[in-house]
Recover the amino acids of this structure.
C-alpha cells in the first residue's frame, strides 16, 4: 500500500508538503546552519519527529491489544547532525509513560516501541539512544 505525498517549492529554502489522502499540509525550511531561516521543521527534523511518533504509536498499538492505557504518553527527540557527510548522526529519544505501568508491561512496551518502522528504516550508522521515563 502506498501513500502519496507532494511538495511545492515556495521560495527561500521552504517547501509546502501535502499528505494527499488527508489534505494535511506542513511547511519545511532549511536550518540556519545550512543556509535556511530555521522557521519550520527541516527535512531532517521531520525524521526525528517521525521516530518519536512512530515509537510511541507502536507502543500504543501494543498497549491497546493488551488493555493497557498510555494516556498522557509523550516524547522529546534531539537530532544531532554529523558532517562529512552531512546527515543525521544521532537521535536521542526520551519517552514519558504512565508511572503505574508494571515492570513486565514496561519491558514489553519498550521492546515493541523499538520495532517501529521508522527505527528500522534509519541508516545503520545513525545512533538511536532511547530512554523510557515513567513519570506521567
Amino acid at each position: 500500500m502506498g501513500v502519496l505525498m507532494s511538495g511545492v517549492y515556495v521560495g527561500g529554502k521552504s517547501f509546502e508538503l501535502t499528505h494527499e489522502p488527508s489534505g494535511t499540509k506542513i511547511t519545511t525550511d532549511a536550518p540556519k546552519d545550512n543556509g535556511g531561516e530555521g522557521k519550520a521543521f527541516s527535512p531532517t527534523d521531520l525524521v526525528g519527529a517521525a521516530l518519536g511518533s512512530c515509537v510511541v504509536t507502536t507502543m500504543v498499538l501494543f498497549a491497546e491489544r493488551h488493555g493497557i492505557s498510555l494516556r498522557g504518553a509523550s516524547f522529546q527527540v534531539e537530532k544531532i547532525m554529523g558532517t562529512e557527510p552531512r546527515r543525521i548522526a544521532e537521535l536521542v529519544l526520551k519517552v514519558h509513560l504512565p508511572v503505574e505501568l508494571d515492570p513486565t508491561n514496561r519491558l514489553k512496551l519498550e521492546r515493541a516501541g523499538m520495532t517501529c518502522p521508522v527505527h528500522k528504516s534509519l541508516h545503520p550508522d545513525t545512533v538511536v539512544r532511547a530512554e523510557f521515563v515513567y513519570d506521567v
